[in-house]
Write a structure and sequence with these properties.
TIM Barrel, 11 strands, two-stranded antiparallel sheet, about 325 residues, binds flavin mononucleotide, about 45% helix, Non-ribosomal Peptide Synthetase Peptidyl Carrier Protein, Chain A, alpha/beta, 2 domains
């Protein structure tokens, strides 16, 4: 089934999850080029965007090649969330996603993110204001509920559907679980029973087999993949091909990973500038080289570099050396 949001038909049902500090424009472009059906921006706090903060504006930046562009907003005040949604739309967002799933104390203490699952009246006002403010589709990301005693995702989903939300994503954990335990894909089925909208299941999906199982247990139409994509922007594309019946794929070979890591570095320099780009790339590089025999030395080398040419060389040599070591073994 092709998922359609308004007039936008998505390429496939495997989406890259929004991850603050990770899925910036650089990462999203690569994931999309490598086959993700949809990519979503890092969360932007509505008021931060409206204040014109540099970081807020950076987070809504996008590239044409990642379209359709989904910008994720968080907030707890209906007027400003609506205004922020309109601004994001004016800046090019083709989809607005509302975050009601973030468990972070900093966000929840301001009654945003998953704290809204305890305030369904406020959640409804926020959704209504956002839907009224824009002409593009509005989607919603949530958890199963605040805690085990209040798994109210179906209720919030029903409210959202009545207010005109176009798609719902559910991370199969409660807020109080943070990231502990296992995502409960079967629990997402209660949301399936509650609404007829396109439904996305999220949490602990790391392979086509996981995706298949999560879809069966939840009855969802699509999957969203987060942490398993760290250092693996090709993963959503691989899972999508697996779901469409293609043979299971190996991880890309070392020369391919080398060229993706280098492409990622260039995109980060473009997006963040040299100083921040070099610094922020280090964590991605650590994920790219995870499991290589020269992982430790490669990471130590990158972490001491500030010159982008030195970084380029260190990235290339890390993968070349890993290949030589593998061939010699
Ligand atoms: C570092 C990090 C940052 C995240 N940032 C966001 C965010 O900005 N917005 C959001 O809705 N979820 C955010 N999440 C949650 C993910 O989108 C996803 O729901 C969660 O990681 C579960 O999926 P996974 O098991 O595939 O990682 C973040 C998760 C991580 C690990």
């Amino acid at each position: 089934m092709t998922i359609t949001l308004g007039t936008i038909a998505l390429d496939n049902p495997v989406f890259l999850a929004p991850m603050s500090g990770i899925t910036d424009m650089a990462f999203r472009r690569i994931a999309r080029r490598l086959g993700a059906g949809l990519v979503v921006s890092e969360m932007v706090v509505g008021q931060e965007l409206l204040s014109g903060s540099r970081e807020g504006l950076r987070r809504v930046q996008y590239a044409d090649d990642e379209a359709p562009v989904a910008i994720q907003l968080a907030g707890n005040e209906a007027n400003s969330l609506g205004e922020a949604a309109r601004l994001a739309q004016d800046l090019g967002a083709q989809i607005i996603d509302i975050n009601m799933g973030c468990p972070a104390k900093k966000v929840c203490n301001g009654y945003a993110g998953s704290a809204l699952m305890r305030e369904l009246g406020l959640a409804a006002r926020l959704i209504a204001a956002t839907v009224a403010a824009v002409s593009v589709p509005v989607t919603l990301k949530m958890r199963l509920g605040w805690d085990d005693a209040s798994r109210n995702a179906p209720e919030l989903a029903r409210i959202a559907a009545d207010l005109g939300v176009a798609m719902i994503t559910v991370h199969g954990r409660t807020r109080c679980q943070f990231y502990k335990g296992e995502a409960d894909w079967s629990a997402v089925a209660a949301v399936r029973d509650a609404v007829d909208l396109p439904l996305v299941v999220n949490g602990d999906i790391a392979s086509a087999d996981d995706a298949r199982e999560a879809l069966i247990r939840s009855g969802a139409d699509a999957v969203m993949v987060g942490r398993a994509c760290q250092g693996r922007p090709w993963l959503p594309g691989q899972i999508a091909r697996g779901l469409s019946g293609e043979a299971p794929e190996d991880e890309p070979d070392l020369p391919t990973r080398r060229s993706i890591a280098l492409e990622h570095f260039e995109a980060m320099i473009d997006h963040h500038g040299v100083e921040l780009g070099v610094r922020c790339f280090r964590k991605h590089f650590a994920w790219y080289v995870e499991g290589l025999s020269n992982e430790k030395t490669a990471r130590a080398r990158i972490n001491s570099q500030t010159d982008p040419d030195e970084v380029r060389q260190a990235v290339a040599e890390a993968f070349d050396e890993a290949r030589e070591l593998a061939e010699a073994a």
